[in-house]
Design brief:
Helix content is 32%, strand content 20%. The chain is an alpha/beta fold. Helix 4 packs across helix 7 and helix 5 crosses helix 7. It is globular and about 55 Å long. GO terms for molecular function: hydrolase activity. Keywords: Hydrolase, Signal.
Length: 336
């Protein structure tokens, strides 16, 4: 029934970029959040959509933030939205194609063959934000979203519709076991050219998911259908797309807007559950994140967050409060 209803809604929604005609409905989060489904150009799997989620400030504001989620993820971070709204930023997020609210029955979750496929989702969302009166925009990305945002900022050099870039633990490191990374990755990348749909289990642990969700050891409530404790297997095409994106970072990214890169102060690699999971990044090698972030050409700053988890704004209360303070104070300086 849900699939049928979604298909009906999809047929009813039409988006004309030139006129900014967007229809919003109440979002699954409630509490004043609204969403709009945007029909994009079909790709190798067929129909494609992205989903814009927004909540405006009580008083009219021309400042806004656009949040881009990570891998095996979608937007659910209400607290983050409220922090920005309190500081006078209209809040927007986008569930990228094949993630969360944007997933369609014809698609494999998270499927991508080139990270530039997401640029259309960002272009569309930013254009809509501009049409809705957002003059100053902070573009923010977490993990895979941070990698995508970085590449996008470089690709839109000179044509930016944003004024600053925030990267929360950007995926500048491949989140797979080191053995797979060193031995199998080159073969996978090569094979992906002809066999992008071949699936592979990246060997990711459920412990990070368990550290977040309230039904395990965490404090956050979100859909395990959209964000399962263990990410579904990726395919060779995904591995190649991420690898090639990371290679572009290594070669240097020209970003003409101020950039803030935040990451945990340490990586952790627990084999079984312990509260150590709350003290570091259980997904990425932060040494590589820090190293690759220095390939940004432009005005950037990098800050390590003691006690920060992979998604810094889902860290324990004292840590995330410090993260918000850092972000908002920086934004005040760079977004006038």
């Amino acid at each position: 029934m849900k699939v049928a209803l979604r298909c009906v809604i999809l047929m009813l929604i039409t988006f004309f970029p030139a006129f900014g005609q967007v229809t919003y409905f109440a979002d699954i989060l409630g509490k004043g959040f609204k969403q709009a489904t945007i029909v994009q150009t079909p790709d190798y799997e067929g129909s494609v959509t992205c989903t814009i989620i927004k909540k405006p400030t009580p008083e009219k504001s021309t400042k806004a933030v656009l949040y881009v989620h990570g891998f095996n993820d979608y937007f659910f971070q209400e607290e983050m939205a409220e922090k920005f709204i309190k500081e006078g930023y209209n809040f927007y997020a986008v569930d990228l194609r094949k993630y969360g609210r944007s997933w369609l029955p014809n698609q494999k979750f998270n499927n991508v063959r080139d990270l530039s496929e997401y640029y259309a989702d960002l272009d569309t969302t930013l254009a809509i934000m501009k049409s809705e009166g957002c003059e100053k925009i902070l573009l923010s990305g977490h993990s895979l979203g941070g990698l995508v945002v970085s590449l996008y900022a470089d690709a839109r050099n000179g044509q930016e519709r944003f004024d600053a870039v925030l990267l929360n633990s950007p995926m500048f490191d491949m989140p797979v076991k080191s053995g797979l990374k060193k031995t199998a990755l080159p073969l996978i990348v090569k094979r992906a050219e002809k066999h992008p749909e071949t699936s592979i289990d990246a060997g990711l642990s459920p412990l990070y998911g368990e550290s977040l969700h309230k039904d395990s050891h965490g404090e956050w409530s979100y859909s395990l259908g959209f964000k399962p404790l263990i990410a579904p297997p990726v395919n060779f095409g995904w591995m190649r797309a991420v690898h090639l994106g990371q290679e572009k970072v290594t070669q240097g990214l020209q970003i003409n807007k101020p950039v803030l890169v935040l990451h945990s102060a340490k990586s952790i690699d627990e084999k079984k559950w312990s509260d150590v999971m709350f003290t570091g990044d259980a997904v990425l090698d932060i040494a590589q994140v820090d190293l690759q972030a220095r390939n940004i050409i432009g005005q950037y700053s990098i800050q390590a967050v003691p006690g920060g988890m992979h998604d810094l704004i889902l860290s324990k209360q004292p840590v995330r409060d410090e993260v918000y303070s850092t972000i908002l104070n920086w934004a005040k300086r760079v977004i006038k």
